[in-house]
Specification:
- By secondary structure, this protein is mainly alpha-helical.
- Helix content is about 80%, strand content about 0%.
- Helix 3 (about 40-50) packs parallel to helix 5.
- The radius of gyration is 24 Å and the shape is extended.
- The N and C termini lie close together (about 10 Å).
Length: about 270
Protein backbone atom coordinates (compact mmCIF):
# COMPACT_ATOMS: atom_id res chain seq x y z
CA UNK A 1 0.00 0.00 0.00
CA UNK A 2 1.44 3.38 -1.02
CA UNK A 3 2.05 6.32 1.26
CA UNK A 4 -0.73 8.51 -0.19
CA UNK A 5 -3.23 5.67 0.01
CA UNK A 6 -2.32 5.07 3.63
CA UNK A 7 -2.96 8.72 4.48
CA UNK A 8 -6.34 8.49 2.74
CA UNK A 9 -7.15 5.38 4.73
CA UNK A 10 -6.37 7.08 8.04
CA UNK A 11 -8.44 10.08 7.01
CA UNK A 12 -11.36 7.81 6.13
CA UNK A 13 -11.10 6.11 9.53
CA UNK A 14 -11.02 9.45 11.33
CA UNK A 15 -13.96 10.79 9.34
CA UNK A 16 -16.20 7.80 10.01
CA UNK A 17 -15.35 7.77 13.71
CA UNK A 18 -15.88 11.54 13.97
CA UNK A 19 -19.32 11.32 12.34
CA UNK A 20 -20.21 8.53 14.78
CA UNK A 21 -19.29 10.75 17.73
CA UNK A 22 -16.16 8.82 18.69
CA UNK A 23 -13.88 11.70 19.60
CA UNK A 24 -11.44 9.56 21.57
CA UNK A 25 -11.36 7.01 18.74
CA UNK A 26 -10.60 9.81 16.26
CA UNK A 27 -7.65 10.89 18.37
CA UNK A 28 -6.36 7.34 18.60
CA UNK A 29 -6.61 6.84 14.84
CA UNK A 30 -4.95 10.17 14.07
CA UNK A 31 -2.16 9.54 16.57
CA UNK A 32 -1.60 6.08 15.14
CA UNK A 33 -1.26 7.59 11.68
CA UNK A 34 1.18 10.23 12.91
CA UNK A 35 3.32 7.58 14.57
CA UNK A 36 3.34 5.45 11.44
CA UNK A 37 3.70 8.15 8.79
CA UNK A 38 5.35 10.98 10.65
CA UNK A 39 4.04 14.60 10.69
CA UNK A 40 1.04 15.08 8.39
CA UNK A 41 -1.10 18.24 8.29
CA UNK A 42 -4.29 16.28 7.58
CA UNK A 43 -3.78 13.97 10.55
CA UNK A 44 -2.94 16.88 12.85
CA UNK A 45 -6.25 18.39 11.73
CA UNK A 46 -8.17 15.28 12.76
CA UNK A 47 -6.26 15.06 16.04
CA UNK A 48 -7.14 18.68 16.78
CA UNK A 49 -10.80 18.18 15.88
CA UNK A 50 -10.96 15.11 18.10
CA UNK A 51 -9.82 17.25 21.02
CA UNK A 52 -11.86 20.34 20.17
CA UNK A 53 -15.10 18.34 19.98
CA UNK A 54 -14.81 17.50 23.69
CA UNK A 55 -15.52 21.16 24.60
CA UNK A 56 -13.18 21.03 27.59
CA UNK A 57 -10.41 23.46 28.58
CA UNK A 58 -7.69 20.80 28.71
CA UNK A 59 -8.78 19.35 25.38
CA UNK A 60 -8.93 22.84 23.88
CA UNK A 61 -5.28 23.33 24.85
CA UNK A 62 -4.34 20.02 23.21
CA UNK A 63 -6.38 20.96 20.15
CA UNK A 64 -4.53 24.27 19.84
CA UNK A 65 -1.21 22.43 19.99
CA UNK A 66 -2.32 20.12 17.19
CA UNK A 67 -3.66 22.98 15.07
CA UNK A 68 -0.37 24.84 15.41
CA UNK A 69 1.66 21.74 14.58
CA UNK A 70 -0.41 21.17 11.45
CA UNK A 71 -0.21 24.78 10.30
CA UNK A 72 3.55 24.71 10.79
CA UNK A 73 3.59 22.02 8.10
CA UNK A 74 0.98 23.63 5.82
CA UNK A 75 0.01 27.21 6.59
CA UNK A 76 -2.68 27.21 3.88
CA UNK A 77 -4.52 24.07 5.01
CA UNK A 78 -8.21 25.04 4.87
CA UNK A 79 -9.36 22.52 7.45
CA UNK A 80 -6.73 23.60 9.96
CA UNK A 81 -7.48 27.29 9.41
CA UNK A 82 -11.23 26.81 9.78
CA UNK A 83 -10.97 24.49 12.77
CA UNK A 84 -8.47 26.67 14.61
CA UNK A 85 -10.53 29.80 13.92
CA UNK A 86 -13.65 28.07 15.24
CA UNK A 87 -11.79 26.98 18.38
CA UNK A 88 -10.69 30.57 18.95
CA UNK A 89 -14.18 31.96 18.32
CA UNK A 90 -15.71 29.60 20.87
CA UNK A 91 -13.11 30.44 23.52
CA UNK A 92 -13.87 32.84 26.37
CA UNK A 93 -12.39 36.18 25.31
CA UNK A 94 -11.73 37.16 28.95
CA UNK A 95 -9.86 33.96 29.84
CA UNK A 96 -8.14 33.52 26.48
CA UNK A 97 -7.76 36.99 24.90
CA UNK A 98 -4.99 35.74 22.59
CA UNK A 99 -7.31 33.23 20.95
CA UNK A 100 -9.87 35.93 20.18
CA UNK A 101 -7.18 37.88 18.33
CA UNK A 102 -6.00 34.81 16.42
CA UNK A 103 -9.57 34.10 15.28
CA UNK A 104 -9.59 37.31 13.23
CA UNK A 105 -6.25 36.52 11.60
CA UNK A 106 -7.17 32.93 10.80
CA UNK A 107 -10.57 33.90 9.43
CA UNK A 108 -9.07 36.56 7.19
CA UNK A 109 -6.50 34.12 5.83
CA UNK A 110 -9.12 31.46 5.09
CA UNK A 111 -11.32 33.95 3.24
CA UNK A 112 -8.34 35.12 1.20
CA UNK A 113 -7.47 31.57 0.16
CA UNK A 114 -10.93 30.11 -0.52
CA UNK A 115 -13.86 32.48 0.12
CA UNK A 116 -16.38 30.14 -1.52
CA UNK A 117 -15.18 26.92 0.13
CA UNK A 118 -17.20 24.74 2.49
CA UNK A 119 -14.72 25.60 5.26
CA UNK A 120 -15.34 29.33 4.75
CA UNK A 121 -19.12 28.79 4.87
CA UNK A 122 -18.82 26.75 8.06
CA UNK A 123 -16.64 29.42 9.65
CA UNK A 124 -19.14 32.13 8.65
CA UNK A 125 -21.86 30.20 10.48
CA UNK A 126 -19.66 29.98 13.59
CA UNK A 127 -18.96 33.71 13.38
CA UNK A 128 -22.72 34.39 13.31
CA UNK A 129 -23.08 32.14 16.34
CA UNK A 130 -20.31 34.05 18.14
CA UNK A 131 -22.17 37.35 17.51
CA UNK A 132 -25.49 36.05 18.84
CA UNK A 133 -27.49 38.26 21.20
CA UNK A 134 -28.66 37.57 24.76
CA UNK A 135 -32.15 36.32 23.88
CA UNK A 136 -30.88 34.22 21.01
CA UNK A 137 -28.43 32.60 23.40
CA UNK A 138 -31.27 31.76 25.77
CA UNK A 139 -33.25 30.14 22.93
CA UNK A 140 -30.22 28.13 21.85
CA UNK A 141 -29.69 26.88 25.40
CA UNK A 142 -33.35 25.90 25.62
CA UNK A 143 -33.10 23.91 22.39
CA UNK A 144 -29.91 22.21 23.59
CA UNK A 145 -31.61 21.32 26.87
CA UNK A 146 -34.59 19.80 25.06
CA UNK A 147 -32.52 17.52 22.82
CA UNK A 148 -31.86 14.78 25.45
CA UNK A 149 -35.60 14.59 26.15
CA UNK A 150 -36.33 14.19 22.44
CA UNK A 151 -33.74 11.41 22.22
CA UNK A 152 -35.36 9.64 25.17
CA UNK A 153 -38.83 10.04 23.64
CA UNK A 154 -37.59 8.59 20.35
CA UNK A 155 -36.01 5.69 22.24
CA UNK A 156 -39.28 5.05 24.09
CA UNK A 157 -41.21 5.02 20.78
CA UNK A 158 -38.67 2.59 19.33
CA UNK A 159 -39.06 0.37 22.40
CA UNK A 160 -42.82 0.27 21.99
CA UNK A 161 -42.46 -0.70 18.33
CA UNK A 162 -39.87 -3.41 19.05
CA UNK A 163 -41.97 -4.86 21.87
CA UNK A 164 -44.90 -5.16 19.47
CA UNK A 165 -42.67 -7.06 17.05
CA UNK A 166 -41.49 -9.46 19.73
CA UNK A 167 -38.11 -11.03 20.49
CA UNK A 168 -37.23 -11.31 16.82
CA UNK A 169 -36.24 -7.66 16.82
CA UNK A 170 -33.32 -8.43 19.14
CA UNK A 171 -31.82 -11.16 16.99
CA UNK A 172 -32.36 -9.11 13.85
CA UNK A 173 -30.54 -6.00 15.05
CA UNK A 174 -28.09 -7.24 17.69
CA UNK A 175 -25.12 -7.63 15.35
CA UNK A 176 -25.76 -4.64 13.08
CA UNK A 177 -23.29 -1.75 12.85
CA UNK A 178 -26.09 0.80 12.49
CA UNK A 179 -26.04 3.17 15.46
CA UNK A 180 -29.80 3.57 15.88
CA UNK A 181 -30.43 -0.17 15.54
CA UNK A 182 -27.67 -0.88 18.08
CA UNK A 183 -29.37 1.39 20.61
CA UNK A 184 -32.73 -0.29 19.99
CA UNK A 185 -31.28 -3.77 20.40
CA UNK A 186 -29.43 -2.75 23.56
CA UNK A 187 -32.61 -1.23 25.01
CA UNK A 188 -34.54 -4.44 24.44
CA UNK A 189 -31.76 -6.53 25.93
CA UNK A 190 -31.26 -4.28 28.98
CA UNK A 191 -34.99 -4.06 29.73
CA UNK A 192 -35.81 -7.74 29.24
CA UNK A 193 -36.99 -9.96 32.10
CA UNK A 194 -39.88 -9.79 34.57
CA UNK A 195 -38.16 -7.33 36.92
CA UNK A 196 -38.11 -4.70 34.19
CA UNK A 197 -41.80 -5.04 33.31
CA UNK A 198 -42.76 -1.75 35.06
CA UNK A 199 -39.90 0.03 33.29
CA UNK A 200 -41.03 -1.35 29.93
CA UNK A 201 -44.61 -0.28 30.64
CA UNK A 202 -43.64 3.29 31.50
CA UNK A 203 -41.22 3.39 28.59
CA UNK A 204 -43.89 2.34 26.11
CA UNK A 205 -46.20 5.09 27.38
CA UNK A 206 -43.64 7.74 28.35
CA UNK A 207 -45.60 10.79 27.14
CA UNK A 208 -48.78 9.66 28.88
CA UNK A 209 -46.82 8.80 32.03
CA UNK A 210 -45.33 12.30 32.19
CA UNK A 211 -48.76 13.85 31.68
CA UNK A 212 -50.37 11.68 34.38
CA UNK A 213 -47.54 12.32 36.85
CA UNK A 214 -47.82 16.09 36.29
CA UNK A 215 -51.57 15.97 36.93
CA UNK A 216 -51.07 13.85 40.06
CA UNK A 217 -48.44 16.30 41.33
CA UNK A 218 -50.83 19.21 40.90
CA UNK A 219 -53.79 17.39 42.48
CA UNK A 220 -51.70 16.13 45.41
CA UNK A 221 -50.23 19.54 46.20
CA UNK A 222 -53.63 21.22 45.86
CA UNK A 223 -55.20 18.66 48.19
CA UNK A 224 -52.45 19.04 50.76
CA UNK A 225 -52.92 22.82 50.81
CA UNK A 226 -56.72 22.70 50.94
CA UNK A 227 -56.73 20.20 53.80
CA UNK A 228 -54.27 22.29 55.80
CA UNK A 229 -51.53 19.67 55.82
CA UNK A 230 -49.14 22.20 54.29
CA UNK A 231 -49.31 25.98 54.03
CA UNK A 232 -48.07 26.64 50.51
CA UNK A 233 -45.58 24.23 48.99
CA UNK A 234 -44.84 20.55 49.51
CA UNK A 235 -42.31 18.25 47.91
CA UNK A 236 -44.53 15.23 48.57
CA UNK A 237 -46.65 15.84 45.52
CA UNK A 238 -43.62 15.66 43.25
CA UNK A 239 -42.91 12.08 44.27
CA UNK A 240 -45.17 11.06 41.39
CA UNK A 241 -42.48 12.03 38.87
CA UNK A 242 -39.82 9.77 40.41
CA UNK A 243 -40.82 6.60 38.49
CA UNK A 244 -40.72 8.42 35.16
CA UNK A 245 -37.38 10.03 36.04
CA UNK A 246 -35.98 6.59 36.88
CA UNK A 247 -37.11 5.28 33.49
CA UNK A 248 -35.56 8.27 31.69
CA UNK A 249 -32.25 7.78 33.52
CA UNK A 250 -32.33 4.09 32.66
CA UNK A 251 -32.89 4.92 29.01
CA UNK A 252 -30.01 7.42 29.08
CA UNK A 253 -27.68 4.82 30.61
CA UNK A 254 -28.71 2.21 28.03
CA UNK A 255 -28.23 4.69 25.18
CA UNK A 256 -24.76 5.66 26.44
CA UNK A 257 -23.70 2.03 26.78
CA UNK A 258 -25.07 1.15 23.34
CA UNK A 259 -23.33 4.07 21.66
CA UNK A 260 -20.05 3.10 23.33
CA UNK A 261 -20.53 -0.48 22.09
CA UNK A 262 -21.25 0.75 18.57
CA UNK A 263 -18.16 2.97 18.53
CA UNK A 264 -15.94 0.16 19.82
CA UNK A 265 -17.29 -2.15 17.12
CA UNK A 266 -16.82 0.47 14.41
CA UNK A 267 -13.28 1.31 15.55
CA UNK A 268 -12.28 -2.37 15.61
CA UNK A 269 -13.86 -3.01 12.22
CA UNK A 270 -12.11 -0.05 10.58
CA UNK A 271 -8.74 -0.99 12.09
CA UNK A 272 -9.12 -4.60 10.94
CA UNK A 273 -10.32 -3.60 7.47
CA UNK A 274 -7.27 -1.43 6.84
Amino acid sequence: MGRTTTIDVYQDRCEQLFLAGGNAAVRRAAQEGLEELGPQADLYCWLALGHAAEDDDDHDDRAEEAFRAGLALDGDHLGLLAGYAELCLRADAFEYPGRATRATVLSRRLKELAPESAEAEQLAAVERWARRGYWEDIRMRAVAGALPGRDTEAQACALAEDLRQGDGAITRDADTVDRAATVRAATLEALSGPWNAPVRLLGRHRTAAWAVSAILCFVTNTTLRQTGVVDSFSAWGYLWVIPVLIVDRRFAAVRKEAEARHLAHLEAELAERH
